[in-house]
């Protein structure tokens, strides 16, 4: 019996089998072709695909299919970020080996991803827990050691005394371990580090070359690297001195505020603080300060406390000024020199501290308004520019002029044979501690020999394999407690020795996986000629939450591997796209004051007197409709993408997550929206299905005699907009354009189906329809293949080239925008009609004419009217 409706289950299964059978998406390394490397951030194999995966991989697949149709040699691989703590936890909780747990999850998630109809080259599939993968990673670790980029040193860490492991700052919640809930201790342990700090300046400078990255991501990385220019200043201790310490070195980025200094503050693990540990009050304070950890975000939220050491120092430019030295809980030993001077007038943190401990607040900059007396009375620091006051020889200078003048004076001032100050550039970026006390991770290929010291495992002995018989019954690192695994002979002298039991941070695994896809079966980590061909990744797609750590580490690895000679490429990702999150209403009932959340499939909605109300399915009890929030397991506002694919089809799921809003913004899930999307897919299929018999009668070489019923120029413009919007990843606009085309084609297709269309109408309609099927195929590939087959066309849509269009009907997508300074036209910029305000502002400020007019000054205001004007006020 003939189908009268589009059967998504039959279609999805059929075409996925055909694509797989003919290896349509398998990529052969051919360096002669024009390449395009599309990559989505690989998933952790939790076992279940979620909506974030659906949206992320739909975006990537659309781009891969689009670029392939345009004639590019596309690489679109997939793998698994498979090591990590969840598998360790599953082993502890369920008594299952992390290897089995992980590979079972990979098998399950792979089926789910394949049900989306992704154009993945699965022959390149990798998992970071595969022995072959971590063998190559261990080789890279040894290369890092060879080039001096690995060090082992003592470092303060967050120690969980119950789980007996080091925790990252993000795993410490309110001073307690995220899993054990134990109070965290600050300990100093010997750790392995990768020297990312050696590349601080390069990583910072190169951000300017990443012109196709979101500006917000580059700003986040710039702030994380945190370059600052300042000075190291020596402050002489004049009372309360400690044996062998007669001065305190302070790093500051605001040396011009030195005449407003009213205290010095040192870190709780500063050498002076350690020397005073015999005092019970200081010992207690330092212990409490260390509980806070080293996370800057946590420190910023914590109340600022200090304790007076009794030490006094002399201001190097004002010998009559002696100020107290505090130990403070907001100063970090690993930034600058572990000591700061506090100028309350120019820093809000210092202002709050001075108010709390009744320290002097000296106005040293004259602001325009309000006056300094008002600021001090209100407890507000002044952060702007102005004229220096109460600052000796700096009086009358701007604060920018004073910066240079005070550093010069301090450099010329000699104390005990050396300048009081030296200019210094400091970065917030710290070396990357990679050691983790976990069993399920890449072993560090090091042996500790009592005779030879640290010994590298020879490359021919790699991989250092994880043991199969791991016990999680004892707290701490199972590798450390293993009875035999850690015992080994030294490869240099043959003496009894111990393996390194720390494993690598999983961020190491994800810092080079995009390179491994290029030659996934090679015995070496990478092949230079292939890397040079495929890198950089042309389009990388992932969540904004990875803007700093993962992306920064991946950039560092690529710079390092460039240094080692693996590749001539330095930047790994040419173009970056950060997709938005998917949100949903929350539903809950109150249990006292506690919210008990319900899943969407546990409630039903009902319109009562024009108001939407929610009720629990099981007992019809009233349910409160809460706010719309990011889908999360804790709020239970999740929709299972597998159910959506099963009920409506892969194309409906793909189309819906791309159609509601711009793909880089958050979207709200709507069941009614999914149903409407499904009806639209049915509509396309039905229109073509019903007209197929008449359309098949059209000659293979038809002769058009003019335009019939719809304007060729109109459809041309829509097709060109579709192409443009695909290029810009404006996928919601692509969907809107497709709706337009379908609406245009609806009337002639119905006429043709009813036998009312003439030959010329059929010719034009068929030609337009063939193009439509090709341009919808990146988003709705299964539907497109079905429709192509309905028309009796040979081959697969996925193998068709992107349509050529009559360029005489060219549509202009760029516009000219005037750029003004103080209301007078100075220049103009050519931009896309869809350019946003930030892009317009940036483009205008990059004009040479505007730079010359500004002469380095910062504009007071920039007024941007999209598609109209940019006005810079100076």
From TrEMBL:
Residues of the Aminoacyl-tRNA synthetase class Ia domain: 425-603, 628-669
Domain Methionyl/Valyl/Leucyl/Isoleucyl-tRNA synthetase anticodon-binding: residue ranges: 716-838
Alphabetical keyword list: Aminoacyl-tRNA synthetase, ATP-binding, Cytoplasm, Ligase, Nucleotide-binding, Protein biosynthesis
Motif placement: 'HIGH' region: 43-53
Location of the Methionyl/Leucyl tRNA synthetase domain: 38-172
GO cellular component: cytosol
BP GO terms, sorted: leucyl-tRNA aminoacylation
Chain positions recorded as ATP binding sites: 633
One Pfam short name: tRNA-synt_1_2
Residue ranges of domain Leucyl-tRNA synthetase editing in the record: 222-409
Reactions mediated catalytically: tRNA(Leu) + L-leucine + ATP = L-leucyl-tRNA(Leu) + AMP + diphosphate
Any one Gene Ontology molecular-function term assigned to this protein's record: aminoacyl-tRNA deacylase activity
InterPro entries: aa-tRNA-synth_I_CS (IPR001412), aa-tRNA-synth_Ia (IPR002300), Leu-tRNA-ligase (IPR002302), Leu_tRNA-synth_edit (IPR025709), M/V/L/I-tRNA-synth_anticd-bd (IPR013155), Methionyl/Leucyl_tRNA_Synth (IPR015413), Rossmann-like_a/b/a_fold (IPR014729), tRNAsynth_Ia_anticodon-bd (IPR009080)
Locations listed in the record: Cytoplasm
EC numbers for this chain: 6.1.1.4
Segments carrying motif 'KMSKS' region: 630-634
Keyword Protein biosynthesis: yes
Chief subcellular location: cytoplasm
Similarity comment: Belongs to the class-I aminoacyl-tRNA synthetase family.
Descriptive protein name: Leucine--tRNA ligase
């Amino acid at each position: 019996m003939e189908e009268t409706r589009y059967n998504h289950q039959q279609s999805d299964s059929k075409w996925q089998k055909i694509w797989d059978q003919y290896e349509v998406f398998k990529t052969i390394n051919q360096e002669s072709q024009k390449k395009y490397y599309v990559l989505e951030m690989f998933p952790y194999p939790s076992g279940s695909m979620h909506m974030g995966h659906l949206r992320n991989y739909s975006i990537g697949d659309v781009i891969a299919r689009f670029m392939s149709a345009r004639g590019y040699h596309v690489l679109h691989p997939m793998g698994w970020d498979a090591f990590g703590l969840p598998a360790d936890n599953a082993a502890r909780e369920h008594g299952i080996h992390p290897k089995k747990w992980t590979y079972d999850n990979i098998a399950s998630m792979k089926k789910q991803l394949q049900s989306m109809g992704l154009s993945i080259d699965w022959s390149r599939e990798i998992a970071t827990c595969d022995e072959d993968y971590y063998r190559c990673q261990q080789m890279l670790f040894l290369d890092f050691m060879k080039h001096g980029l690995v060090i082992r040193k003592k470092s303060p860490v967050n120690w969980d005394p119950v789980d007996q492991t080091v925790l990252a700052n993000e795993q410490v919640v309110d001073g307690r371990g995220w899993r054990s809930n134990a109070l965290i201790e600050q300990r100093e342990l010997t750790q392995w580090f990768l020297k990312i700090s050696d590349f601080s300046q390069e990583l910072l400078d190169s951000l300017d070359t990443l012109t196709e990255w979101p500006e917000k991501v580059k700003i986040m990385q710039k702030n994380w690297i945190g370059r600052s220019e300042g000075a190291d200043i020596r402050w002489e201790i004049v009372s309360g001195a400690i044996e062998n310490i007669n001065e305190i070195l302070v790093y500051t980025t605001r040396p011009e505020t030195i005449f407003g200094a009213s205290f010095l503050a040192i870190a709780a693990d500063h050498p002076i603080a350690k020397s005073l540990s015999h005092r019970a009050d200081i010992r207690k304070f330092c212990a409490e300060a260390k509980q806070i950890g080293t996370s800057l975000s946590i420190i910023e939220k914590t109340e600022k406390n200090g304790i007076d050491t009794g030490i006094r120092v002399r201001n190097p430019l004002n010998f009559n000024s002696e100020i107290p030295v505090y130990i403070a809980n907001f100063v970090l030993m690993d930034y600058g020199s572990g000591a700061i001077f506090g100028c309350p007038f120019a820093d809000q943190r210092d202002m709050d501290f001075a108010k709390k401990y009744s320290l002097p607040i000296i106005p040293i900059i004259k602001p325009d308004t309000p006056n300094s007396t008002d600021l001090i009375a209100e407890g507000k620091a002044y952060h702007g520019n102005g004229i220096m006051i109460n600052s000796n020889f700096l009086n009358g200078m701007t604060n920018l002029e004073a910066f240079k003048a005070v550093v010069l004076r301090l450099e010329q001032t000699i104390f005990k044979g050396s300048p009081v100050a030296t200019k210094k550039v400091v970065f917030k970026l710290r070396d990357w501690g990679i050691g983790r006390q976990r069993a399920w991770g890449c072993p560090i290929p090091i042996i500790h020999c009592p005779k030879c010291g640290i010994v590298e495992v020879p490359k021919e002995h790699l991989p250092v394999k994880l043991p199969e018989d791991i016990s999680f019954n004892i707290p701490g690192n199972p590798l450390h407690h293993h009875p035999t695994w850690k015992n080994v002979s030294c490869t240099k002298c043959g003496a009894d020795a111990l393996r390194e039991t720390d494993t690598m941070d999983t961020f190491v695994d994800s810092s080079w996986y995009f390179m491994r896809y290029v030659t996934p079966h090679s015995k070496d980590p990478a092949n230079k000629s292939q890397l040079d061909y495929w890198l950089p990744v042309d389009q990388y797609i992932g969540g904004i939450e990875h803007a700093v750590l993962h992306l920064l580490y991946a950039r560092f690895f690529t710079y390092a591997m460039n240094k080692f000679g693996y590749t001539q490429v330095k930047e790994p990702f040419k173009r970056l796209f950060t997709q938005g999150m998917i949100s949903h209403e929350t539903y809950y009932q109150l249990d006292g004051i506690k919210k008990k959340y319900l899943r969407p499939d546990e409630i039903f909605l009902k319109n009562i007197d024009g108001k939407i109300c929610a009720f629990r399915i099981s007992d019809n009890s009233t349910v409160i409709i809460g706010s719309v929030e990011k889908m999360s397991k804790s709020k239970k506002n999740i929709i299972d993408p597998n159910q959506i694919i099963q009920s409506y089809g892969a194309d409906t799921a793909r189309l819906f997550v791309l159609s509601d809003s711009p793909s880089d913004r958050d979207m709200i899930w709507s069941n009614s929206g999914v149903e409407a999307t499904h009806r639209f897919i049915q509509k396309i299929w039905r229109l073509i299905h019903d007209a197929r018999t008449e359309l098949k009668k059209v000659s293979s070489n038809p002769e058009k005699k003019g335009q019939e019923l719809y304007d060729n120029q109109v459809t041309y413009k829509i097709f060109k907009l579709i192409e443009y919007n695909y290029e810009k990843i404006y996928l919601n606009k692509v969907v809107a354009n497709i709706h337009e085309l379908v609406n245009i084609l609806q009337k002639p297709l119905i006429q043709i189906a009813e036998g009312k269309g003439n030959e010329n109408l059929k010719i034009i309609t068929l030609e337009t329809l063939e193009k439509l099927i090709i341009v919808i195929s990146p988003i709705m590939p299964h539907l497109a293949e079905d429709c192509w087959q309905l028309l009796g066309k040979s081959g697969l849509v996925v193998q068709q080239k992107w349509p050529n269009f009559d360029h005489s009907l060219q549509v202009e997508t760029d516009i000219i925008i005037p750029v003004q300074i103080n209301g007078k036209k100075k220049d103009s910029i050519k931009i896309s009609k869809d350019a946003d305000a930030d892009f317009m502002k940036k483009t205008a400020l990059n004009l040479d004419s505007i730079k010359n007019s500004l002469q380095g000054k910062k504009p007071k205001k920039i007024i941007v009217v999209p598609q109209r004007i940019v006005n810079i006020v100076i």
